[in-house]
Amino acid sequence: MVNMDIWIGVGVFIAILLLAQGGYGIWRTLQDPEKKRVQRRLRFMAQAGSDGTDVLERRLVLSEIPFLNRILLKLSLSRRMNFLLEQAGIQSPLGVFIISSLLLATIGFLISTRMISNYLLAGIAGIIAGTIPYLYVLSKKKHRMQKFERQLPEALDLIARSLKAGNAFTGSMKMVAEEMDDPVSREFDKTLGEINFGLEVSEALKNLSHRIECPDLRFFVVAINLQRESGGNLAETLENICRLIRERFKLQGKIKVLAAEGKLSATILLALPFLIALAITYLNPDYMLLLIQDPIGHIMIGLGITMMILGALITKKITVIKI
Q1: Torsion angle of alpha carbons 21, 24, 30, 36, nearest 10°?
Q2: Which of 106, 139, 138 is nearest to 123 (CA)?
Q3: Measured between alpha carbons, how far is 288 from 13 in angstroms, rounded to an integer?
Q4: How far lies 181's CA from each of 60, 149, 155, 206, in Å?
Q5: Which of 56, 64, 201, 256 would be a feasible disulfide site paired with 46, CB 3.0-4.6 Å?
Q6: Which of 232, 264, 281 is the last residue of a domain?
Q7: CA angle in degrees (0–180, nearest 5) for 188-190-195
Q8: Is 197's pLDDT higher than 60?
Q9: Angle, vertex CA 205, rays to CA 200 and CA 206, nearest 5
Q10: What are the pLDDT digits (tens) for 38-68?
C-alpha cells in the first residue's frame, strides 16, 4: 500500500510538471504572434526542399521549451507529426501536443488505478487518453481538407477570371490569398511565399499538392506545369477543370442520397444489439448477469463484437464509392 501511494505521488508530480511546462509553452506562443508567424513560414520553407533547406532546417522550432525542442528535432517521427499539424491548420507547436498527450495519459492512468486494481487495464486506459490529441488533429485535418476541396472550384474560377483580365499567374494567386477564406487563402499564401523566396513555380505547386490531399488540386498543378512547358490557354483549361469538379460534386451528392438507406440500415443493425442488451438488463437483470459472469458468455460477447466490426467494415466498403 505504501509503494502504491509512492507511485501515485510520483504520477501526480509528473502530471503537474507536464501541465506547468505545457502552460508555459502555450503562453510563450500566444505572447508573440509575429514570431510565431515567422517561425511558421520558416517551417514551410524548410519542407520545401530549396537550396536553403539546411539553414532553414536548423531554425525549425517544434517546441518553445529548449530541451524538448532539441529532442524532437532529432526524431524523424516528430517531423511527420509536425507536418500533420500543418495539414490540420493548427498553429500551436508540436511540443504542446506532445505534453498534452503525456499529461492526459498520466491523468488517465492515475484515475484508472483509483477505479480498478488491474495495472494493465489502467495502462491501456492511459494510452487511450493519451491518443485524444492525435485523434483531434486527425479530425481537424479531415475537415480542413474537405473545406479546401469545396473552396477549390471558386478559387480556380477567380484565377481564370484574373488571367482573362490580363493579370499574371502569381498576381491571380495573390487575389485568391487575399479575397478568399482559410484554408484556400492560407495555402495559396504559403505557395506565394515559397515562390517569393526563390523556389520554382512548379516546385511550389508540387509542395502545395503534397500538403493538401485533394485529387482535384493535382489536376490544377498538372495543368499549370503543362501550360508553362507547352503553352496554351490556361484560363480556359482552369474553367474546364472547374466544370469537371462541380459535376463530380453533383454525382457525389446523388451517390450519397442512394447510399443513405444502406447507411441507415447499418446504423440500426449496429445499435440494435446494444439496445436489446440494455432492455434485457432493465427487465431481467439476472438473465443478463449470466452472460456477463460466465466464461462462455465472454467468448460469445467477443465473437459478437468481432462480427459486428466485420459487418460494419463490409457495409462501409459497399456504401462508400470513390469518384
Answers
A1: -60
A2: 106
A3: 42
A4: 27, 13, 10, 22
A5: 56
A6: 232
A7: 95
A8: yes
A9: 95
A10: 555 555 555 544 443 443 344 566 767 776 7
Among 125, 84, 105, 88, which Cα is nearest to 22's? 105
What angle do the packed helices 201-211 and 184-196 form, to 10 degrees?
150
CA dist 53 → 59, 188, 199, 264 (Å): 10, 21, 11, 50
Rg of the chain taking only CA atoms, in angstroms: 26
Q: Which grid cell is 323? A: 469518384
Q: In terms of residue numbers, what domain contains 294?
A: 248-319
Helix (H), strand (E) at residue 24: helix 2-31
- Domains contained in the chain, number: 3
CB burial class (10 A; 0-12, 13-18, 19+) of residue 164? Answer: middle
Same domain, 28 and 124: yes
Q: What pLDDT digit, counting tens, does each position of 17-40 carry?
A: 666 666 655 555 555 555 555 555
Q: Which residue matches cell numbers 525549425? A: 60
pTM beyond 0.70: the answer is no
Residues in the chain: 323
Nearest by Cα to 11 from 188, 129, 155, 175: 129
Q: Is the peptide bond before 66 cis (omega within 30 degrees of 0)?
A: no
Q: How far apart are the first and last CA of the chain?
A: 60
Residue 140 lies in a domain: no
